[in-house]
Amino acid sequence: MLDRRKTLEFIFKAVTNATALFVVAIITFIIGLVVIKGSAHMSWEFLTAGPTGDMEHGGIWPMIKGTAMLVMMMSMFTVPLGAVIAIYLNEVSRRNWFYNAVMSSVRTLAAVPSIVYGLFGLAFFVNIVGGTLDWLIGYEDHVFKVRCLLWAAFTMGALTLPTNVISVTEALKLVPEEQRHAGICLGYTRWEVIKWVVLPQAIGGMLTGLVLSISRGAGEVAPILFVGVAYFVPNFTGDPLDQFMELGYHIFVMATQSPNVDRAAPILYSTTLVLLTLTFTFNSIGQILRWIHRRRIDR
Amino acid sequence: MSEIPIVAEETKSISSDRMIKRRKIEEKIAIGALFMGGAIAVGIVIAIFYFVIQESYPLISDTDLRNEMSLYHDTENEEEFARNASVFQTLDNLLGQFMWQPVSDQPLFSLWPLAAGTLKITLVAVAEGTVISFLTAIAIAFYLPRNLRYTVKVITELLAGIPSVVLGFLGLIYFATYMQTITGTTFRLNAFLAGTMLSLTVIPIMTTLFEDIYSSYSKEQIHAAKCCGMFDYQIITSLIIPATYGKVFAAGLLGFGRCFGETMIVLMCSGNAAIFSMDFASGARTFAATIGAEMGEVIVGDTHYSVLFLLGLILIFATFTINYFSQRLIRRWTYA
Question: Between the CA atoms of A86, A91, A92 and A96, what dihedral angle is there, to the nearest 10 degrees?
Fold first, then answer.
């Protein structure tokens, strides 16, 4: 009896531990594969030069630039809005129907599949907002009603909004309630409590949200597939109303539609390494920031 | 010491009438702005719903689109027939046949092959993801040496930081060949490969959820059971699994919702063949991947364009239903 139980216990332990090790091994393998295969082609020139000759040679500077522009414009829109929504939910709103509506909207935004954001960006930002702006300035040809960097950034901003709201909310929850009460006792209005007591302590949360949403925004491709990203934009100047190249999309399009995938593979591994480094760096900075912030408040 | 007069001055100025008025106005503006922020969040959600519905609505409201969708054309009374094209012509095309051929003389937009593909790939991903995450979570909660537990947890969460396009790329370029040698399938890219790669995206989420569920289980009961001489596996099988299977089911449902809308991995690894079969070794095509693959080339306002938005609508409602039920289940099992 005891023997059977011991055997079963051993089997359980072996199977679960093996699975955990298997998961760790797979992750290590994936990262190691990208690092080893990607570093073969990595050089300073690869990072700073434009692509040449059928996209199978040269560098990836335009894609890095496009990704950076996209991410910057996205965070300019999404970080303040996320902070405002989080502050509204936590500090201002009474628990009424509107609070519930905003709360469930944020939850909904987090649950909507990323490709649907692409549909939304195309139907709303490109066609409706762009169309309206065109109509307002009265041009014959389309200026704003084009698939471009600006609308891609807005679409990505809507996608990363929940990330920001959640980060700032976490930071706000860590501000002690007594400090708010003290502020009110000193005669502060609600806004002054927010401005002088809550906001300075929530800056860390906003920073975390910024970094995490950059990591997310750099990695997502599905929402911008048809809202502005392009296969090849030879001289991208950084104009927001222009199509752009992006790291993730470049990987996707070269891997699926390149005439000769085997010849393009080394460059693709290197591009993947750049993308992975980018998202991992920002992700881990975000986690470290979050950790530091929590510790500081705990003291 | 020099600060005291400044404080006194400020106190005086704060209490003056003009100052109070200014502060009140500032308060109103600021609170209003914060309220607007909340309203924008609600607005975005409403706009997503509205525009996805608006762009797919012409399929049933517009006679031209209905006629284009029609599978039958009366060549003698062409105009008469076109004017009377009914909603059933659209529905017949969507549900009454089994082919997805959007670009042809007679465009065919059957939803069935896509539904079958989505189901296939998601089932593979959720099944693999649930089993692996379940075992990993148990290992983290019970069996791994204590100094390894945290490391394994952090490494598992690292997987969530890998962009899906990278997983898709590796699946397409690297893993597909090995998978084909192991499983011996005819097609290099198939539903099983896509599901396996997709399961990598749910493993970190599910492992965290399961681990939370197990570590929040009452410590006293575990200790009591141990004092009675129960082995760890007995505690797991006779105490923890019966007490938490509802939550585990809910977590699985949540992973299902996540897999449902994933685009890039499926687009790159599944072979994108819109065939109506439940054979896991053949190619498959999901709702999300179809939108991603075809939206770039359609003409705005076309039948194809509207059908793709209809697919988006299906995606939204499916994820909502799944999420709603899983949230409800989690809540019920938390309070019970």
Answer: 80
Q: Are residues B92 and B172 in the same domain?
A: no
Cβ neighbors of B125 (< 8 A, separation 6 or more) are B194, B195, B196, B198, B199, B201, B202, B255, B259
CB-based contact B316 A87, cutoff 8 Å: no
Q: In terms of residue numbers, what domain contains B164?
A: 112-335
Q: Which residue is closest to A247 within chain B, CA to CA?
A: B165
- Which chain B residue shows the shortest CA-CA distance from A30? B170
Same domain membership, residue B232 and residue B126: yes
Distance CA A49, CA A53 (A): 13
Same domain, B45 and B144: no
Report if residue B106 sits inside a domain.
no
> Do the Cβ atoms of B316 and A128 come within 8 Å?
no
Number of domains in chain B: 3
B251 & B189 share domain? yes
Structure tokens at A147: 């698939």
Whether residue B123 lies inside any domain: the answer is yes
Does B46 map to a domain? yes
Query: CA B48 from chain center: how many Å?
Result: 16
Q: What angle do CA B19, B23, B29 make, to 5 degrees?
A: 145
**What predicted TM-score, i.e. pTM, was given to this entire model?**
0.88
A121-144 residue pLDDT tens: 999 999 889 888 888 888 777 788
Same domain for B262 and B292? yes
Dist CA B34 CA B242 (whole Å): 46
The ipTM, to two decimals, is 0.90
Residue with tokens 């390149």: A258
Q: Å from A41 to nearest chain B CA?
A: 17
Position B170 scores a pLDDT of 93
Assess if residue B101 is contained within a domain: no
**Cα B18 from Cα B28, distance rounded (Å):** 15
Contact B174 A33 (CB under 8 A): yes
Q: Does domain A47-298 have CATH number 1.20.140.10?
A: no
Size of interface A-B (CB pairs under 8 A): 249
Mean pLDDT by 10-residue block, N- to C-terminus, for chain B (336 residues)?
Answer: 48 68 90 93 94 89 80 72 75 85 84 92 93 92 88 88 92 90 86 92 91 85 90 89 85 87 90 83 89 87 90 92 84 61
Backbone angles phi, psi at B277, to 5 degrees: -155, 160
